[in-house]
Each structure stands twice: as structure tokens, then as C-alpha cells.
Design brief:
By secondary structure, the protein is an alpha/beta fold. It has 2 domains: 222 residues, Spore Coat Polysaccharide Biosynthesis Protein SpsA, Chain A (Alpha-Beta Complex); 73 residues, no CATH class. The protein contains 10 helices and 9 strands. It is globular. The mean pLDDT is 93.
């Protein structure tokens, strides 16, 4: 086997998980070349009782009782047996050649440690009427991009992220002993993020690069709730929080805006659409929450 597919799931929608598995079953890469791990992250109904993986000769159920996407991914990393790991969410539908393209990129680009591709949303009940919501969930490329630094334009998102084993193991080692890293990523209904950025950045820390490639494509299944204004605001608040933590892990300090900056931001927001203003405010609230927590943690550690 050359590749491991790891699905981390917490109370997944059965119809979405079925489509994820059906897309994996339809991959052009022969099944003897890859393994499948379904990590059940504290689901209310155990997935091994109702999810059939018998169609794959190298599939197995894995259980992670501690809630949190970071913990589930660490469990998958330690359970994988191959040199290339692909993390597939339980609402991702890979294009048929995704795994084959992943291996091709791994061979052609040995200097890259983490890579991904394009994401096309499929909205339940049809596309939202607001164009910005369609764009918010879409991630496309006109050409391949890569870098060997913390360039966010080249960072692969968590959906379908491909990682070399040595990078994943280093990330798991760091996350396993760092509560700050463990605060990143989804946890139940919480909307913290950036655990995928953190894992990808470990590639840079290890002397490798990051990349996003046009040939890697997947559909991201979007339930109706994800286009709800409240969900998008909560998500942006979680992203603002997580970005500050992500920077702090690499010694980059985020400071709260000065009084003048707050005044300028307030004035600027008077002239932008209401929802855009609310998104900016939610993101800023998340940043401020993280800054406050980091200061408190520093005070506690200094005592």
C-alpha cells in the first residue's frame, strides 16, 4: 500500500457519509494500493455498527473517545501504515482520480510535505441566492501554487489535505503534548479551526513546502444550516480566534487594535454592507478572545 485515507467523523449525516464512501469506492487507484481508516470520534451511535466497509480489502474502524478533530486526526495518523496520508471529511466527495493524482504529485514534487486542491460546494436545496455565500464556500485555482513558507495562499485546506507521513507524525508529536494546539479544530458544535493550517505549517518547519494543485478536486456537501447567517458569523468568530492561536504557536504575537485603529475600523464599517460588517466584527471578537486567553495563560505560567 502507498496511501492511507483517513476519515474523521463525529455524528456524521448518514447520507453524506455514504456519498463520501461511494466516491472512495469509485477511485481509479486500485484498492490494493491504499487503506481506509474511519475514525469514530465519540459519535452518539457507534459507526462500526452501521457503516459497512467490507467493500474495501484494507479498511478498518478506529475509535477515538476524546472529542475533538485534532484528537481524531492524531489517532488516524498513529494508525496509518503508509507514507502518504489523505484526510477526507465525512462530507467530502472526491473526484474519481483524486487518490491517483495525490500519488502522482507526491512523486513529482518530493520537496512538498502537505498539499491539496480545489473545493466545489454542493448546497442542499440549491445554491444560496447571495453570491458572496457561494464564493465563501468555494475554493478554486487557475494554476498550481506552492511555497516553502507560511504563505496562506498556498496552504491546503483540511478537506482532502494530503500529508507525508513524517510531517504528520511530527505534527501528532507536537499536538499530543501541547494544549494550545489541541484548542484548534472542531470540537463537537464548536467552530474553532486552523488545525489543518497547523499541520501543513509543520511541513515548512521540517524544511518542506506547501502546495495546491488544480488536478485535485472534490465536492463539499453543504447542509442548509451552513448558509445560515448565524452559522457563518460563528464560523468567522472561530476563525479569528484560531488564527491568533496559530500565529502564537510560531512566535507571532497579535496585539489588540489601538484606540485609533478601533475608531478607523468603526468608521470604515459604516460604509460597507451590514453582513460584511457583522462578519468583520465576529472575526475581530474571536481574535480578541484569543488574545485575552493567551495573556491569561501567560500570567498563570509566570506565577
Amino acid at each position: 500500500m502507498e496511501l492511507s485515507v483517513i476519515i474523521c467523523a463525529h455524528n456524521p449525516r448518514p447520507d453524506y457519509l455514504k456519498r463520501t464512501l461511494d466516491a472512495l469506492n469509485a477511485q481509479t487507484l486500485p484498492k490494493e494500493k491504499w487503506e481506509l481508516l474511519l475514525v469514530d470520534n465519540a459519535s452518539q451511535e457507534p459507526l462500526n455498527d452501521k457503516t459497512d466497509l467490507s467493500w474495501h480489502p484494507n479498511a478498518r474502524h478506529v475509535i477515538e473517545a476524546q472529542l475533538g478533530l485534532t484528537h481524531a486526526r492524531m489517532r488516524g495518523i498513529h494508525g496509518a501504515k503508509t507514507d502518504i496520508l489523505v484526510f477526507v471529511d465525512d462530507d467530502n466527495v472526491l473526484f474519481p482520480d483524486y487518490l491517483a493524482e495525490c500519488l502522482q504529485i507526491a512523486e513529482v514534487w518530493p520537496v512538498i510535505g502537505a498539499w491539496g486542491g480545489q473545493q466545489f460546494p454542493e448546497f442542499e436545496g440549491g445554491d444560496p441566492k447571495e453570491e458572496w455565500k457561494r464564493e465563501f464556500w468555494t475554493s478554486t485555482l487557475k494554476r498550481d501554487v506552492w511555497s516553502n513558507n507560511y504563505d496562506r495562499a498556498t496552504v491546503p485546506i483540511g478537506a482532502g489535505i494530503c500529508v507525508r507521513r513524517k510531517v504528520a507524525l511530527k505534527y501528532a508529536e507536537l499536538a499530543g503534548s501541547d494544549p494550545l494546539r489541541q484548542s484548534l479544530g472542531r470540537k463537537g458544535s464548536g467552530l474553532s479551526a486552523c488545525e489543518d493550517f497547523d499541520m501543513a505549517y509543520v511541513a515548512c518547519d521540517s524544511g518542506l513546502g506547501l502546495g495546491r494543485f488544480v488536478s485535485l478536486k472534490l465536492h463539499h456537501l453543504m447542509p442548509k444550516g451552513r448558509v445560515n447567517d448565524d452559522y457563518i458569523l460563528r464560523l468567522n468568530e472561530g476563525c479569528g480566534y484560531s488564527m491568533v492561536i496559530l500565529d502564537a504557536l510560531r512566535g507571532i504575537k497579535t496585539v489588540q487594535p489601538s484606540r485609533i485603529d478601533r475608531f478607523v475600523n468603526f468608521y470604515r464599517r459604516l460604509f460597507i454592507p451590514t453582513m460584511k460588517r457583522r462578519i468583520d466584527e465576529a472575526y475581530e471578537a474571536g481574535m480578541n478572545r484569543a488574545i485575552k486567553e493567551l495573556k491569561e495563560n501567560f500570567r498563570q505560567s509566570s506565577k
